[in-house]
Design goal:
446 residues, seven-stranded mixed β-sheet, 2 domains, binds iron/sulfur cluster, alpha/beta, 41% helix, TIM Barrel, single chain
Length: 446
């Protein structure tokens, strides 16, 4: 098989992996002659530790797999796809050729499990060794750890990659047993723990030996499929929080399930991917990582799913009127972060600015606070903004678009609303594509 044919097959098979910020969902422009198609495979974007957006060749070593995960296109029982394997030399050479032509800045390498996990891991190690040692490639490499591979092999892979990830796949053990019967909780968490321990050990080594080789310097991440199984958003968020705490992950990626199988245990093939739900999860994830929210504060057993009409931070604010108003001249940094319209940067600016001056609403505006939202939740020198009429509807209007507000009222929310239903209504029956995919990596609006 020609290299180009292999590339087409193996880049296409990798497009559902969401450990980066573009996904494989079709959008409007894909059908037209416009730019920005997210359904074409090959290059994805990720963010380096310094915040730069980098383009990566996203490809599988092979899409042959001995496992039969029901939600995966590459499952062994799927006879409808073409299969291919890259030889390590072929893939390393291809990466370098693309790099030299300035198409990519790094590599995102995953794989199906061919023969056994160790053999697959060895193929990936060989590819990265050629890149690092023969081509002296110093660019970014993200490598997927193959669950079940020997720790020694994971260690070698980690010495060659900048970032590693082990996909947690499903949000619960029962869903994993049902949909990925060849995998177990332990086969996923054990390598995750091994990588965490090895990173800590390497950090200790580096404090003593400055030139010690680095193990996974950009940390580890994971990916979870959303919408293929029945777990609530609250369950997913609590799991995410515990993964960050226990395994010190850099990121948890959520991947809206794109139906690829007509298995009775999965949503039907005509189900739209739950992109709005995925977007809300990224917003909540951002709140936990940068706004000091706990998972149980964002959602709990009484309201286990996100409000489709309002981002999680605003939703928290309207449900906690006892917390407000916050006096901006005295509030702690953590309290400021809870105010809709105040983001991380504007909260930091407030803390600095109020050391010299007493702040009023005009100064808040100058500091970048979105007053349209924040004015309902703060006081300056003990006073509300001049002329402000505090009514529940006014507050909601400031936190939602007109369309969202009208629908929210019409549907008499809160009621348990199906996300797909809400998304269709909000978008006139069309599932958002590119904008949604771009937005999902952004923080909730301050
Ligand atoms: S192990 Fe990975 S590639 Fe193989 S079927 Fe499962 S998800 Fe797909």
């Amino acid at each position: 098989m020609e290299i180009f044919d292999k590339l087409q097959i193996l880049a296409d098979s990798a497009k559902y992996d969401a450990a980066c910020t573009s996904s494989g969902v079709a959008n409007n422009s894909a059908a037209s002659s416009g730019m920005g198609s997210t359904c074409l495979a090959g290059v994805c974007h990720s963010f380096a530790a310094d915040g730069r957006c980098i383009s990566l060749l996203k490809v599988l070593q092979t899409n042959i797999c001995i496992y039969d995960c029901k939600y995966c296109l590459n499952r062994k029982s799927n006879a409808e796809i073409k299969r291919a394997v890259f030889k390590p030399e072929e893939l390393a050479d291809l990466t370098i050729q693309f790099y030299k032509r300035n198409y990519i800045e790094g590599l995102f390498l995953s794989s199906g499990v061919i023969k056994n996990p160790d053999y697959t891991c060895e193929l990936m190690i060989r590819t990265l060794m050629i890149l690092r040692n023969e081509y002296n490639f110093n660019g970014y490499i993200h490598a997927k750890a193959i669950p079940g591979a020997d720790n020694k092999l994971l260690q070698q892979l980690g010495m060659l990659a900048d970032r590693m990830s082990v996909n947690i796949e499903m949000p619960s053990q029962s869903s994993l047993a049902l949909l990925a019967p060849d995998k177990s909780k332990n086969s996923i968490l054990a390598p995750m723990n091994f990588i965490k321990e090895s990173i800590s050990e390497n950090c200790r080594d580096l404090t003593v030996y400055k030139k010690a080789p680095k193990f996974v310097p950009a940390g580890q991440s994971t990916q979870m499929i959303i919408g293929a199984s029945p777990e609530t958003d609250s369950h997913i968020l609590k799991l995410t929080e515990s993964l960050y705490k226990k395994y010190k992950l850099k990121r948890v990626f959520f991947s809206a399930y794109i139906p690829v199988s007509d298995d009775a245990m999965l949503p039907s093939l005509d189900t739209s991917p739950p992109l709005l739900r995925e977007h809300r999860l990224y917003q909540a994830d951002w709140l936990m990582r940068f706004y000091k929210f706990g998972a149980s504060e964002i959602l709990d057993d009484n309201s286990p799913n996100f409000n489709p009409f309002m981002d999680p931070k605003c939703n928290w604010a309207v449900n906690h009127p006892d917390f407000f108003p916050v006096e901006v001249n005295r509030a702690s940094y953590e309290e400021l972060l809870r105010v809709p319209g105040i983001g991380v940067r504007s909260a930091q600016r407030i803390i600095v600015a109020r050391r010299c001056n007493t702040l009023d609403f005009l100064s808040l505006k100058k500091l970048g606070v979105v007053l349209k939202r924040a004015q309902y939740f703060v006081t300056c020198k003990g006073k509300k903004n001049d002329g402000l009429i505090i009514k529940h509807d006014n507050i909601l209007r400031s936190l939602m678009s007109k369309k969202e507000f009208d629908m929210y009222k019409d549907m008499n929310y809160p009621k348990q609303l199906d996300f797909i239903e809400a998304e269709k209504l909000l978008n006139g029956g069309h599932i958002k594509g590119t904008e949604e995919m771009t937005l999902m990596s952004l923080p909730p609006s301050p």
